[in-house]
Amino acid sequence: MELLQLRYFCDAAVSQNFSKTARKYLVPTSNISQSVKRLERELGCELFEHRSNKIFLNDDGKKFFSAASEALSLLESAKAALTDREGEIFGEIKITCLCNRSTLTDAVERFTMLYPQVNFVMNHTSGGENDFDILISDSCPIEYESRILLLDEEICLAVNRDHPLAERELVSAEELVGERFITMATGSSLHNITVSTCNEAGFTPNIAIQTDDPFYIRKYIERGLGIAFVPSFSWRRLFSDNVSLKSVGNIRRKTYAYLPRNKRVKRSVEVFLEVFKETIRN
Questions:
Q1: Per DSSP, what are the bridge partners of residue 55?
Q2: Element housing 159 (H / E)
């Protein structure tokens, strides 16, 4: 049984697709499937069920995945313990960032100037796995060890400067009936805030455009294609002069740094979080 076999197996168990795992590790799909078959022969049982284009862990696979993922986590912690020497900041930090990407970019820039020997692995989607040192999000889709509040910010309404509401200082949610809304994808915090705010005001929002890219939300607003609830601090420098931000009651979003279970917190991670908080304060 090889370490790489376990990594392939655990990643495939999460992605439920050999091809996705192959792309992640930059190897042919056949390498992943053959590695899993060798592992199954060694264990004396099958680990996956195959249905159409997806694979699913069977009962034996679930038991082995639980043990294998914990073993990999322990190995990573042991490696970190050997390399994470007192006073030295180096190595690799894996970050899954589901919101506040612009602030994260600023923090990484500042941190890299101080500690250029640290490398980063960034991911902006969550498949439910805990292959990260830090998850930056307003909610955590998996069990976590602890969380640190990074930012508590107001959610404002963004409108094009030619919109009738652009001249108003304050806007009530009840006034937004019939407006065309632009949001992130279903399940995201901005989508949930849009729906809940409008529902509380007594109507269902007309969501005209959904996108998984914050850049295009801002572009659609600038072109007058709709209005959107947006984070006032995280996006404060990202709008053009064509957009006006309005307060709509006390709508807020809290962003946390989540730390995974069964993973030792490295010194580099602790220092990075301090730099991140300092970036927000400045």
A1: 50
A2: strand 144-160
